[in-house]
C-alpha cells in the first residue's frame, strides 16, 4: 500500500496518473494547501520542502521500513523502477535516457515556467505586463519545443507511453489559462487528446474531483500559498506575516 499525500494540482495529478495506470493500491491523504496543511509536522516529516505530492511506500522493494519520498519527478522515477513499467530498464541506455531527459525538461522547464505564468497572469495582486508577457511567451516557446518533439513519435520518449508523458500532461491541461491555443500546436494537440483518452488519466482526474472541485487559490489562501519566508514558516506556517 502507498500513502499519497496529495492535492489537486498538476504535480499531484502526475502521481495519480501513474498509480491508476499501474494499478498499484494506494490511499490518498488530502493535504489542503490552501489551508496550510502542507506545514503540518506529520507532512513535513515526509516532505521537508512543504510541497505536494509526497508518498510513503509501505511495501518497498526488498522490504524493510516504509520509504518516504517527495518531489513529483523523483516519485515517478521511483514508482517506475519499483514496478518496472513506464521507463526502459537500465540496460536500455538510450531508451531510458530519452525518458529521463524529458522528465527533467518538465521538472526544470515547463513546470516552473507555466507555474510563473499562472502566478502573474491569474493570481498576482498586481498585474505586471512585463512579467505576464515574459512567462506567456516562454510557455509558448516550450509548447513549440514539445510540438516539434511529437512530430514523428506517438509519445514524448518514443512509441511507448512513459513517466515523461505523465509528468508533462497535467501542465498542458490548463493551456487556456496559460494563454496558449492547442490548435497552434497540432502534434501536441494530437498527443494531448491521446493521453486524455487513456482510462488511467480519466480515473486519475475523477479522483481529483472526489477530493476537491474548489479552486485552491482565493483571497484567504493567497498569503499561505505565496507569502512564505523561512522565518514566518517556522514561526507560524499557517498564518504568514
UniProtKB/TrEMBL annotation:
CDD domains: GST_C_YfcG_like, GST_N_Ure2p_like. Residues 1-87 form the GST N-terminal domain. It comes from the Bacteria. It holds the Pfam family GST_N. Coiled coil: none annotated. Gene3D superfamilies: 1.20.1050.10, Glutaredoxin (3.40.30.10). Residues 92-215 form the GST C-terminal domain. InterPro entries: Glutathione-S-Trfase_C-like (IPR010987), Glutathione-S-Trfase_C_sf (IPR036282), Glutathione_S-Trfase (IPR040079), Glutathione_S-Trfase_N (IPR004045), GST_C (IPR004046), Thioredoxin-like_sf (IPR036249). Belongs to the GST superfamily. This is Thiol:disulfide oxidoreductase.
Amino acid at each position: 500500500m502507498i500513502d499519497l499525500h496529495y492535492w489537486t494540482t498538476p504535480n499531484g495529478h502526475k502521481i495519480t496518473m501513474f498509480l491508476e495506470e499501474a494499478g498499484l493500491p494506494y490511499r490518498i491523504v488530502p493535504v489542503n494547501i490552501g489551508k496550510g496543511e502542507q506545514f503540518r509536522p506529520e507532512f513535513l516529516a515526509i516532505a521537508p520542502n512543504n510541497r505536494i505530492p509526497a508518498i510513503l511506500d509501505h511495501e518497498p522493494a526488498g522490504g524493510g521500513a516504509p520509504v518516504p519520498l517527495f518531489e513529483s519527478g523523483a516519485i515517478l522515477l521511483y514508482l517506475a523502477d519499483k514496478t518496472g513499467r513506464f521507463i526502459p530498464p537500465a540496460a536500455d541506455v538510450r531508451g531510458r535516457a530519452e525518458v529521463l531527459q524529458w522528465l527533467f525538461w518538465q521538472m526544470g522547464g515547463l513546470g516552473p515556467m507555466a507555474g510563473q505564468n499562472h502566478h502573474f497572469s491569474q493570481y498576482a495582486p498586481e498585474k505586471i505586463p512585463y512579467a505576464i508577457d515574459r512567462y506567456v511567451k516562454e510557455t509558448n516557446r516550450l509548447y513549440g519545443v514539445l510540438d516539434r518533439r511529437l512530430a514523428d513519435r506517438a509519445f514524448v520518449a518514443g512509441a511507448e507511453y512513459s513517466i515523461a508523458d505523465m509528468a508533462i500532461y497535467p501542465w498542458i491541461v490548463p493551456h487556456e489559462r496559460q494563454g496558449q491555443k492547442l490548435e497552434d500546436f497540432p502534434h501536441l494537440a494530437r498527443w494531448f487528446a491521446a493521453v486524455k483518452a487513456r482510462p488511467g488519466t480519466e480515473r486519475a482526474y475523477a479522483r481529483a474531483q472526489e477530493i476537491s472541485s474548489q479552486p485552491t487559490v482565493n483571497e484567504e489562501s493567497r498569503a499561505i500559498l505565496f507569502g512564505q519566508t523561512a522565518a514566518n514558516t517556522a514561526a507560524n506556517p499557517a498564518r504568514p506575516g
